[in-house]
Amino acid sequence: MSKKIYSAALAGSFCVVSLAGGVNPAVADDLFGPDYRPYVSISGGWQNRDRAAESAVVWTEWKNGYDFNLAAGLKLYKLFRVDVEWSRLTNDAKTLSGDENGGFPASGSATLTAYTLNAYVDYAIPNTPIEIFGGLGYGTFRSELSSLTNNVISPFGFIFTGTSTYAPVWQARLGLTYNVNDNFQIFAAYRYFDGDKIKFTFNLPNGIEFHAGPQESVIQSGEIGLRYLF
Question: Residue 99 has what pLDDT?
């Protein structure tokens, strides 16, 4: 499913560029004219994370959480910009393992830290201060577990705390920007975040080394933020 969404988003970006290239030279200059301005942005949002599953009976379900993002980039053209981004996405555990139908009440949390390179297309709606934007990003991420357990295994000392290996991640955003003035922009966006399989190593109370690896980390969020162009 994630690959289909990735392909659709990429095709959409190419479509915008292709359509813009077919307009008259004056409009094309408005879209593709150089606009070499660096920028920084800060944003945050409320998000929903899918079940993190290693198998049908080893998984964690999460409560809704939040994300926080910092980015620094360069607007190369009026239509196009790139940035590098640091993101932190946190969720508390809801239920942990059990069987295919349900799990046991859980405690603890997971925080994903991601570093991505993103490319965006910005389309200004004529005669308004509003822009539509869409973009794709690719990078790496890892997960940090803090006191993750459930009420069945916790009495035996099975409490999982640790940091995973890094793994690839891609993301897509679609949103609206409001230009307050020449420098300040307020934006709102939908974000789809999809990380590959990660690996944890834990030392259990009996001295046995335990490996765990959720197959995929999928998060969808709504975000608002502020962007400053120099």
Answer: 59
pTM check: above 0.85: no
Q: 99-138 pLDDT, tens per residue?
A: 566 678 999 999 999 999 999 999 999 999 999 999 999 9
- How many Cα atoms occupy the beta-carbon half-sphere of 96 within 13 Å? 20
Structure tokens at 29: 């200059």
C-alpha separations of 55 from 97, 143, 169, 216 in Å: 9, 18, 21, 11
- H, E, C per residue of the chain: CHHHHHHHHHHHHHHHHHHHHCCCHHHHHHHHCEEEEEEEEEEEEEEEECCEECCCCCEEEECCEEEEEEEEEEEEECCEEEEEEEEEEEEEEEEEEECCCCEEEEEEEEEEEEEEEEEEEEEECCCCCEEEEEEEEEEEEEEEEEEEEECCCHHHCCCEEEECCCEEEEEEEEEEEEECCCCEEEEEEEEEEEECCCCEEEECCCCCEEEECCCCEEEEEEEEEEEEEC
Q: Mind listing the pLDDT tens digit for each residue in 144-180? A: 999 999 988 888 878 889 999 999 999 999 999 999 9
